[in-house]
Amino acid sequence: MRWFIRSLYISVIALLCLAACQQESLETVKVGEVTRSIFYAPQYVALAKGFFEEEGLAVELQTIAGGDKTMTALLSDGIDIALVGSETSIYVTLQGANDPIRNFAQLTQTDGTFLVAREQMDDFSWAQLKGSTFLGQRKGGMPQMAGEFVLKKHGIDPANDLTLIQNIDFANISTAFASGTGDFVQLFEPTASIFEQEGKGHIVASFGTESGTLPYTSFMAKNSYLEQQATTVQGFTNALKRAQDFVQQESAAEVAKVIQPYFENVDVQLIETVVERYKSQGSYATDPILDEAEWENLQTIMETAGELPQRVAYEKLVNTIFAQKAVE
């Protein structure tokens, strides 16, 4: 019996040492996401399923509220990779960054917000927003720009045809609407679906389907990091592609079950509803390649919103080498 216990003890110690050695051999990658969102489901799938570890990477994920703060962390080397709207790379470039920020892997390809009305509207038309009070997103951010682009597309002048409120912080927009501010509000999931469940509002339209495909959220890094850590970036992109395939091939229920640990306070059935809604409208990019047509649509939306002093060439801020290899 003693020899059995001794052998078992030695085996356990050996396994612990092996696990420790494997952990030490992983390359640490610090990733900053602009918010925690079901909109980013493939990222959490890659984490939960161990796809990054299988590529030799230990991803340390932190949520950094706000695109400006996320980019500051990236520029100051607080993080290696940022998950944020592609428009931020344009803003940084136009400010004269010495080390260009380049988009190397696309995660979402449509706007992720929905138009929520205070009342049920079975026969909704965009013209019904005229004369209303519309609670929009922060000026200069991609949700606001996509929102205004859609309004103008439907013949609505945001400055004259409705009362547009944009001075409320992102975190407080849903609370303001629930408290009685506005007839319509532009919301991300799962808040939009939660409002429907609680009878506080009704989803009547999707800004994502109306604004077309664009690099809404992408992984980006300094050009120097992409050059010096090419193997790491390739492994990261490979893992992301596997996660994107998982999201496309598996049911919304299975995806919801996998990512639920990242949304502990959200019911799994609600997560499933949100995943299905984003899948059905093609919000999740099917691969990490950021197409030039999407890049140009992004800049058109920014121009329409008056937030783009000049266009920036696709080749300057987009690197598709890693994404192409991941797909191959």
How would you describe this structure to a colleague?
The chain is of the alpha/beta class. The chain has a five-stranded mixed sheet, sandwiched between helices. It has two domains: 28-110 and 214-327, D-Maltodextrin-Binding Protein, domain 2, CATH 3.40.190.10; 113-211, D-Maltodextrin-Binding Protein, domain 2. Helices cover 47% and strands 16% of the residues. It has helices spanning 2-25, 41-48, 51-54, 67-75, 87-94, 142-153, 173-178, 191-198, 207-211, 223-228, 230-249, 252-259, 268-280, 292-304, 314-317, 321-327; strands at 27-33, 57-63, 81-84, 101-108, 113-117, 133-135, 163-165, 184-188, 202-206, 217-222. This is ABC transporter substrate-binding protein.
Q: Could you provide a short overview of the structure?
A:
With 328 residues, this protein is an alpha/beta fold. 47% of the residues lie in helices and 16% in strands.
CATH superfamily of the largest domain: Periplasmic binding protein-like II
Main CATH class of the largest domain: Alpha Beta
For the largest beta sheet, what order do the strands appear in spatially?
Answer: 2-1-3-10-4
Number of strands: 10
Terminal residue distance: 55 Å
General shape: globular
Strand content bin: 15-25%
Biggest pleated sheet = 5 strands, mixed
CATH T-level topology of the largest domain: D-Maltodextrin-Binding Protein, domain 2
Oligomer kind: single chain
Calculate Rg over CA atoms.
Answer: 22 Å
What are the secondary-structure elements, in order, as H or E? HEHHEHEHEEEHEHEHEHEHHHHHHH
Helix tally? 16
Can you tell me the CATH architecture of the largest domain? 3-Layer(aba) Sandwich
Q: Which ranges are low-confidence, i.e. pLDDT below 50, for 5 or more consecutive residues? A: 1-5, 14-23
Q: How many structural domains are formed by the residues?
A: 2
The secondary structure category is alpha/beta
Helix content, binned percent: 40-55%
